[in-house]
Write a structure and sequence with these properties.
- The chain is an alpha/beta fold and 274 residues long.
- The chain has 2 domains: 214 residues, Rossmann fold; 37 residues, no CATH class.
- Helices cover 50% and strands 12% of the residues.
- It contains 9 helices and 7 strands, in the order αβαβαβαβαβαβαααβ.
- Helix 6 links the parallel strand 5 and strand 6.
- Helix 4 runs parallel beside helix 5 and helix 7 packs across helix 8.
- The protein is globular, with a radius of gyration of 19 Å.
- The N terminus is likely disordered.
């Protein structure tokens, strides 16, 4: 192959031959990150909820982004520790390696703490925090042995600051930031990095659906919901796009990210600058 062509391919697809797992990646932020990693050349294991037809469509879409890589679906229920571990073990068995792990899966519930349902608390901690611990634990040893690993935890602005009525979510996301720092220190001498991305509000179908519901409930316009409710804490008054988070994940996973570790990177329009 012509050297200039090869050089351009390496530049355009810096993650060629890498294998990535992205949890919670059948829609929203996770799908945006999976799409960016596939475009950068990585084979991607997606995981999450959805009807079989929707999952097949997502896999087909990602396949087209990088024909030389593979895209597979793993339906592990990450609230179960053995399945969270199994997601990584099955990926290693199938691909022979795992280079990039993006812990994105999460759920939310809003309630005053005195009436917060204990089952909701347990579920949020299990999926938003414990699952990331189990997948990281399962992947870390091989990453360390291979001398390469990139673990990216999708935290939140709520991993850095708090809001009322989100006690379980805020606790889990603060925990993710602490987990990130610890894993980063353990991997520092082995070229295994670990970072947290801390988004504010991101434009996803879930958020879009919330706008009309909130406007109706409060008797205000969509524009007022966006500016004065959802983006009240974000000084730039705009939603982040999933493509922005995907681009950051590619940076952290590629050559430019090898000295970035143990960080919690806000993508929040200035929310946590207050």
């Amino acid at each position: 192959m012509d050297m200039q062509v090869q050089s351009k391919m390496d530049f355009d697809r810096p993650l060629t031959e890498r294998v990535a797992i992205v949890t919670g990646s059948t829609s929203g932020i996770g799908l945006g990150i999976a799409r960016s990693l596939a475009q950068a050349g990585a084979s991607v294991v997606i995981n999450g909820l959805g009807e079989q037809g929707e999952i097949d469509f997502v896999c087909g879409e990602l396949d087209k982004l990088c024909p030389v890589s593979r895209v597979v679906y793993n339906g592990a229920n990450l609230m179960k520790p053995d399945e969270a571990t199994g997601l990584v073990e099955e990926t290693i068995k199938d691909f022979g390696r795992v280079d990039i792990l993006v812990n994105n899966a999460g759920i939310q519930h809003v309630s005053p703490i005195e009436s917060f349902p204990p089952d909701k608390y347990e579920a949020i901690i299990a999926l938003n925090l414990s699952a990331a611990w189990y997948t990281s634990r399962a992947a870390f040893g091989l990453m360390k042995a291979n001398g390469f690993g990139r673990i990216i935890n999708i935290a939140s602005a709520h991993g850095l600051v708090a809001s009322p009525f989100k006690s379980a979510y805020v606790a889990a996301k603060h925990g993710i930031v602490g987990l990130t720092k610890t894993v980063a220190l353990e991997g520092a001498e082995h070229n295994v990095t670990c970072n947290a991305i801390c988004p504010g509000y991101v434009w996803t179908p879930l958020v879009e659906n919330q706008i009309d519901d909130t406007a109706k409930a409060r008797g205000i316009t969509r524009e007022q919901v966006i500016r004065d409710v959802l983006l009240a804490a974000q000084p730039n008054k705009r939603f982040a796009e999933v493509e922005e988070l995907g681009a950051l994940a590619v940076l952290l996973s590629g050559p430019g990210g090898q000295s970035i570790t143990g960080t919690a990177i806000p993508v929040d329009g200035g929310w946590t600058a207050h």
